[in-house]
Amino acid sequence: MKKTSLVLAAILSTPLLALPLASSAETVRDCVVEGTVKRQKGSSDKVYVAFHSAKPAEKGASCRMNRREKFQFKAPNAAELQDAEPGTKVRYRYTEDSEKGATWKRENHSS
Question: How far is the C-alpha of 68 from the C-alpha of 72, rounded, in Å?
Fold first, then answer.
């Protein structure tokens, strides 16, 4: 009886010990950034987003961004952004972690 309970306890605790090892990626930034779609002057095909605000995506999330720091914006759906009218407000979730790097996900948009 004693051996059975010790083995069972070891089997049940094994997955719990493995969980912290599986999720070892550290989130560096988790932000919601807002901006406006713009077109480069003299070119109808070069579209960019002028970001004007950044805030933590969740309570307690790290969202330190410096205006001088360069971020490479990779639109999840470039065609959708290309077709957007200048002046369209966009909102993206920017997440950066130590394993995957940076990811961008569109939250919403409006004209």
Answer: 13
